[in-house]
Amino acid sequence: MSDTAVATMPFAAPVEVETPRKVSLVVLSGDMDKLFGAFIIATGAAAMGNEVTMFFTFWGLRALKDADAKATGKTLFGRMLGMMYGGGIEKAGPSKFGFGGMGRWMFGKMMKSNNVSSLPELRDLALDLGVKMYGCQMSMDVMEIPQDTFVKGVQEPVGVGFFLAEAEASHTSLFI
Amino acid sequence: MSDTAVATMPFAAPVEVETPRKVSLVVLSGDMDKLFGAFIIATGAAAMGNEVTMFFTFWGLRALKDADAKATGKTLFGRMLGMMYGGGIEKAGPSKFGFGGMGRWMFGKMMKSNNVSSLPELRDLALDLGVKMYGCQMSMDVMEIPQDTFVKGVQEPVGVGFFLAEAEASHTSLFI
Amino acid sequence: MSDTAVATMPFAAPVEVETPRKVSLVVLSGDMDKLFGAFIIATGAAAMGNEVTMFFTFWGLRALKDADAKATGKTLFGRMLGMMYGGGIEKAGPSKFGFGGMGRWMFGKMMKSNNVSSLPELRDLALDLGVKMYGCQMSMDVMEIPQDTFVKGVQEPVGVGFFLAEAEASHTSLFI
């Protein structure tokens, strides 16, 4: 039924509260190229008027880390993981042609010369646009990555049930 | 229209059969971290009252394998693949920091100390919760992995058309 | 309300224009196995009467390349990327067990003996079935891959907003 039809109906119609359009993303990958995809989709969707939820898990948690945060990990394994996978989002390398960091540097150059924003810039833009970012509580526990190593603006950690409820309310949900 | 409104309507309303809420997953990856993601989402969605369909293809087929099943492969290539990619779901390593099996062992330790279920436990839980798991017929043919190497409870193999129909009926579909 | 009920309604009902069922795919990966998944889903969905949109970005752009196209890249980095990631879709290797090209050859053999179409054949079939394929403008700029290196039938490049609008109109959207 069209909006016009509703407006001219001679009897009381149930008030239709417009539910916001939503997009939800699970971000498991910590690769530069996939994180670019995630943040480009998130900022694009937010700019188009969607509520956007990003749920970061496993390697994707790197995307939330503050570059100046202290090293993570309490146990031996956790500290090893913190060292191997240390640094913030700007340390993410591409899923192909990493070449021990050269791939990241090369892509960074090529993106800059095409006026493409960097990953930290895209993340900041996403936060500015109201994109809601959540760390997966279970991954944070297992990988020993505490909330206080994340950048400002990241929401409190949630579980998979939270993501699933968001996904159900979304017109588009992607696993990245 | 609310349930109450329907119940009090003075004339015969068409009976609305409530269609179940559905979640569908394609699982192409055989990496430990992605399989964790897949089974955590599947068991979470099932616990929230969804019908859940998992469609396993390519490397994802490992997730269905019985640890005690015989080696797979008929042709030389098939046997090579069976050897290289042998073993069940408990042999899956992470997509990063594999270190020839050490990464898997390390993550296993960290998960156990956080009381996170193992992959075989999560798969069993999913089956107990009624999650429907299917092998992709074409991948099984190409990779020479027969149905009798799968754990009990896995459905008969299906094609992509089956998955697409499930996805169309689902509120959330993810490619993992 | 059932179709029958609409047909027997004694007053003018609003004409319902049937909107086509749609499926949308983002293809970021250039791995053989994931491209197979993408094109099998795309051709299956098209055969089932869906409008299908494929949005290729980053490594996925390889899937659009004409095997006979000239090498890509203008800057030093772009030419390096063009050399490292040269060739068309038939050069794509699996995400595991690449073995410097042997994995690709082995999988090719196994697929052929199971009468599975090759990637170029699947792409042609998809185009014949009306699947719409788009390169991501930003990735094409960054990776210095011009439109004239793509096979015939590929649409003009688009941005992420185009994909998001397609995804919103789709019953199933996947990130591959």
List keywords for this structure.
176 residues, disordered N terminus, alpha/beta
What is the strand and helix layout of this fold?
Three copies of one chain form a homotrimer.
Chain A: H1 3-7, E1 22-27, H2 32-47, E2 51-56, H3 76-84, H4 102-113, H5 119-128, E3 132-135, H6 137-143, H7 160-168, E4 172-175
Parallel strand pairs in A: 1-2, 1-4, 2-3
Order of helix and strand elements from N to C terminus of chain A: HEHEHHHEHHE
- Quickly give the structural class of chain A: alpha/beta
Oligomer: homotrimer
Runs of chain A with pLDDT <50, length 5+?
Answer: 1-9
Please report the two chains with the greatest interface, counting residues with C-beta closer than 8 angstroms to the partner's C-beta.
A-C, 33 and 31 residues
Biggest sheet, spatial arrangement of strands of chain A: 3-2-1-4
Radius of gyration of CA atoms of chain A, rounded to a whole number: 19 Å
The proportion of residues in beta strands of chain A is: 5-15%
The backbone outline of chain A, from C-alpha atoms, is globular
- The beta-strand count of chain A equals 4
Biggest sheet descriptor of chain A: 4 strands, parallel
Share in helix of chain A: 25-40%
Roughly how many Å apart are the termini of chain A? 36 Å
Count of separate DSSP helical elements of chain A? 7
What is the typical, i.e. mean, pLDDT of chain A?
Answer: 86
Can you describe what's shown?
The structure is a homotrimer of 176-residue chains. Helix content of chain A is 39%, strand content 11%. Chain A has 7 helices and 4 strands, in the order αβαβαααβααβ. The model of chain A is unreliable at 1-9 (pLDDT under 50). Chain A has a 4-stranded parallel β-sheet, sandwiched between helices. In chain A, helix 2 (32-47) links the parallel strand 1 and strand 2. Chain A is an alpha/beta fold and 176 residues long. Chains in contact: A-B, A-C, B-C.
